[in-house]
């Protein structure tokens, strides 16, 4: 079964072709980051217009990359939500028009289910059940995943998402939008011994997290340094980046271990943009090497938004579970409300 996947929930237009026998055949992406950088954040109207410009050429590029034609498609999957309403409507319209024209099924995919299942696009892939640490720009959740559609939230952030904390902290350090990946790169040259920041809720009994206080702690540190030295020199900035990253990684790792224990599972899956973070991966890999659990990640290029995870989740829904169809979008959509396999 050959599935075309279209992602347009935010500022990336992603299109991909996934074949249930042969795997991922093609994957094309256009990121609007540079366009939104000037405004310091995503401008929804500009995002929708750009998806309109990009989606068809990217679809054609995918078909060419895979040596396939529209007539070869068996289904079209698109991100139905959550996300920006106008942006979602672009993907929904194109997917529905294509499916209607070709007389094939259309599947509305939950964006977070896409992220959640994306580690299954890597080799070796994790078997069910597993604990998923979903760390993206808009969400930070620990979930018990027992199969396609069978998700229990074990804990989540009470305020900012991890990616959001990276981006907001980067902004207050004067780094260009979106600063998460830049902050992480600068942290590599930072001295871990110079500053120490709090580990919010690390010791709490539950699996919930909180990252907005960490951002405020960085702000206080920056003000203190500026008052003392007049400005922040590059090494000091790198040292602050390192202290921030150490704190966030400690919390994510600590909560993940607690979740594995609580769910009595031995496989951890990391998904979402922050899953690309090298220090987080190194910390989890080091613990996994001791043999108590296994850890799995999506391919690096598929951590942030992409069409491949949507094509894959669409294919899994068609194969194992009740797919949501129809021409509608759900800017807000609870993952727990999805039907299980
Ligand atoms: P959601 O999926 O919750 O709707 P989103 O689609 O915006 O949100 P993703 O595309 O999964 O989120 O991830 C983007 C986020 O990942 C951004 O906040 C970005 O800063 C962060 N990110 C990407 N790479 C890294 C990295 N190497 N280190 C830390 N954060 C990173
Ligand atoms: Mg994005
Ligand atoms: Fe996302």
Provide a brief overview of the structure.
It is an enzyme of class 2 (transferase). The chain has 341 residues and is an alpha/beta fold.
Describe what this molecule looks like in 3D.
This protein has 341 residues and is of the alpha/beta class. The protein has 2 domains: 2-117 and 302-337, 2-Layer Sandwich (Nucleotidyltransferase, domain 5), CATH 3.30.420; 127-297, Nucleotidyltransferase, domain 5. It is built from 10 helices and 10 strands. It has helices spanning 33-37, 44-66, 85-102, 111-117, 162-172, 180-187, 212-229, 234-263, 278-288, 308-320, and strands at residues 2-7, 12-19, 23-31, 75-81, 106-110, 130-135, 140-147, 150-156, 267-271, 294-296. The chain has a 5-stranded mixed beta sheet with strand order 3-2-1-4-5, sandwiched between helices. Strands 8-7-6-9-10 form a 5-stranded mixed beta sheet, with helices on both faces. Helix 8 (234-263) packs across helix 9. The longest helix has 30 residues, at 234-263. The relative contact order is 0.19. The model has no long low-confidence stretch (mean pLDDT 96). The site of adenosine-5'-triphosphate (ATP) has 22 residues, from helix 4, helix 5 and helix 6. This is tRNA N6-adenosine threonylcarbamoyltransferase. Its EC number is 2.3.1.234. GO terms for molecular function: iron ion binding; peptidase activity; tRNA N(6)-L-threonylcarbamoyladenine synthase activity.
């Amino acid at each position: 079964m050959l599935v075309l996947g279209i992602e347009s929930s935010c500022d990336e237009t992603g299109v991909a072709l996934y074949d249930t026998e042969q795997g991922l055949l093609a994957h094309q992406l256009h990121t609007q980051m540079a366009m939104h950088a000037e405004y310091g954040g995503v401008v929804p109207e500009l995002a929708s217009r750009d998806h309109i410009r990009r989606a068809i050429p990217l679809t054609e590029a995918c078909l060419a990359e895979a040596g396939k034609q529209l007539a070869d498609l068996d289904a079209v999957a698109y991100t139905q939500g959550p996300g920006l309403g106008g942006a979602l409507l672009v993907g929904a319209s194109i997917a529905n028009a294509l499916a209607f024209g070709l007389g094939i099924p259309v599947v509305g995919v939950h964006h977070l289910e896409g992220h959640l299942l994306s580690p299954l696009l890597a080799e070796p892939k994790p078997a069910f059940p597993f604990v998923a640490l979903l760390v993206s720009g808009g969400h930070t959740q620990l979930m018990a995943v027992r199969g396609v559609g069978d998700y229990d939230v074990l804990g989540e952030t009470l305020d900012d998402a991890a990616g959001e904390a990276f981006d907001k902290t980067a902004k207050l350090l004067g780094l260009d939008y979106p600063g998460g990946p830049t902050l992480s790169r600068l942290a590599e040259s930072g001295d871990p011994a110079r500053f120490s920041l709090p580990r919010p809720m690390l010791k709490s009994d539950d699996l919930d997290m909180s990252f907005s206080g960490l951002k405020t702690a960085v702000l206080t540190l920056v003000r203190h340094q500026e008052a003392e030295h007049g400005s922040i020199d590059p090494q000091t900035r790198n040292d602050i980046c390192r202290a921030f990253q150490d704190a966030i990684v400690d919390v994510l790792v600590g909560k993940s271990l607690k979740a594995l224990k609580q769910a009595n599972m031995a496989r951890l899956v990391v998904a979402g943009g922050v899953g690309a973070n090298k220090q987080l991966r190194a910390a989890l890999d080091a613990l996994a090497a001791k043999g108590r659990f296994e850890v799995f990640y999506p391919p690096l290029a598929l951590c942030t938004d992409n069409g491949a995870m949507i094509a894959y989740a669409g294919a899994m829904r068609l194969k194992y579970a009740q797919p949501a169809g129809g021409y509608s979008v759900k800017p807000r959509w609870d993952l727990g409300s999805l039907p299980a396999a």
